[in-house]
């Protein structure tokens, strides 16, 4: 018990010296002490989870070691330690943008966390990094949606669980805030449209409808959009319908996707927005 108290007292000392120092980089030994303390008691781990990301920017030569230790805290058996460590992750890329893709990738994997408070911490951390750099963050998140063919059999179950959680996060947290997050508007709406188009290979009918509803909500494809942009949407639907493939009546998802694609094109027919090639195809 005395050793645990001593560890916490030392952590407070390290933190206070770093807080007060004008040139924090001269206190490398204190920061190394904070990293080492992450192997201590539960309370020491929780305090280290606050201090490691807080001061990491002043010690770039220790950044990799600090992140590795912090990731150990994220895998700790104590929920309070994990939550505190998750909350600190955005600080690792706040002043070092080259780390942002890695942090988003880690947070994306953590979306499958089982405890509500843990998942909530992941959601908030992801929203923080999205607001730091929405373009890079979205690109990293969409990598979790990619092709099934890229996954090995033993990794498929975990990958599929993460993929579904990422899709839910995009639908529930990102898409409703598109006006706030997608800035500058035209540039970022085009970027997320490209990301969606690149990741439609293995979506279900319901997932495809979710993406199409989102794209149609963008100003890029709004009621004032030129005909060529509406045509772009129609071509996305055509590609998903896979009209050149042999129709398999025993494939329920294929049928559902085909019917869904047909229903999506009707409004465009009514508006007369589809070129002759598209109307003859569908």
Automatic annotation (TrEMBL):
It comes from the Eukaryota. Signal peptide: none annotated. This is Clone PI7195 apoptosis inhibitor 5-like protein mRNA. It comes from Solanum tuberosum (Potato).
């Amino acid at each position: 018990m005395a050793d645990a108290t001593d560890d916490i007292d030392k952590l407070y000392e390290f933190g206070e010296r770093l807080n007060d120092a004008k040139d924090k980089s001269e206190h490398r030994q204190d920061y190394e002490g904070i990293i080492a303390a992450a192997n201590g008691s539960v309370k020491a781990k929780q305090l280290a989870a606050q201090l490691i990301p807080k001061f990491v920017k002043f010690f770039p030569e220790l950044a990799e070691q600090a992140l590795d230790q912090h990731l150990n805290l994220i895998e700790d058996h104590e929920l309070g330690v994990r939550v505190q460590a998750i909350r600190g992750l955005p600080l690792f890329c706040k002043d070092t943008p080259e780390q942002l893709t890695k942090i988003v990738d880690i947070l994306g994997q953590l979306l499958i966390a089982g405890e509500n408070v843990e998942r909530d911490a992941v959601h908030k951390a992801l929203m923080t990094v999205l607001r730091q750099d929405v373009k890079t963050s979205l690109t990293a998140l969409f990598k979790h949606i990619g092709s099934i063919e890229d996954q090995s059999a033993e990794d498929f179950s975990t990958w599929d669980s993460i993929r579904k959680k990422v899709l839910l996060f995009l639908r529930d947290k990102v898409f409703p805030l598109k006006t706030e997050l997608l800035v500058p508007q035209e540039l970022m709406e085009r970027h997320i449209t490209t990301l969606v188009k690149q990741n439609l290979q293995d979506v279900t009918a319901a997932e495809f409808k979710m993406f199409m509803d989102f794209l149609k909500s963008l100003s890029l494809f709004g009621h004032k959009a030129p005909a060529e942009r509406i045509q772009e949407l129609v071509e996305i639907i055509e590609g998903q319908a896979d009209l050149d493939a042999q129709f398999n009546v025993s494939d329920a998802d294929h049928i559902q996707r085909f019917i869904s694609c047909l229903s999506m094109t009707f409004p465009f027919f009514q508006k007369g927005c589809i070129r002759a090639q598209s109307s003859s195809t569908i």
